[in-house]
Amino acid sequence: MAARTSRKTDAAITIVPANEASWDDLKAIFGTRGGASKCQCQRYKLQPREAFASFPAAVRAERLRQQTRCGHRNARATSGLVAYLGGEPAGWCAVEPRTAYAGLLRVYRVPWEGRAEDKTDESVWAVTCVLTRAGYRRRGISRALARAAVEFARGRGARALEAYPMIMQSGQDIPWGELHVGSRSIFADAGFAEVHRPTPRRVVMRIDL
What we know:
Blueprint: E1 4-5, E2 12-17, H1 23-30, H2 35-39, H3 57-68, E3 80-85, E4 88-97, H4 102-106, E5 124-132, H5 141-155, E6 160-163, H6 176-179, H7 184-189, E7 193-199, E8 202-208
Parallel strand pairs: 5-6
Antiparallel strand pairs: 1-2, 2-3, 3-4, 4-5, 6-8, 7-8
């Protein structure tokens, strides 16, 4: 995937499928403190009978390593994208077929409230997490990842891509536990359109490919 240059930084943002990144790079993005380090992008991956609290962070991290296949450049599948800024690991985006997120399909109501959708449609992909590493924020990483997710899904045969971002108000403080889904503006910039608003602060956005 070609390098992309943000309007907010003079350094190139390079984005690659996660299997082409090293596990050490992805660990650096998730860090060792805060919500991301605890979640390890497993919130929507757990099966309905799996309690989140039953899996220590180390177990969640191992699951993420297996899902991404980091370091295996020839892997046929991966679970997301890794962004680099000036050669340093800077961001992560979870993007897969929507059916890969068992928790999203069976536990969370936001994508489905008031919608008539076939949850088993494997041709619809989803972005469930957009994460920028501490120290690299406000430099265009999230926007670049949202754009790259579109091309990644299209290149792997998706007919549509969805996201479930927050509506952010100026000056509003939103904890990472909610903001990990991304903001509406980054997906709008990538060509997504709002198709549903299940709650006052959450929207379903979609782009047909």
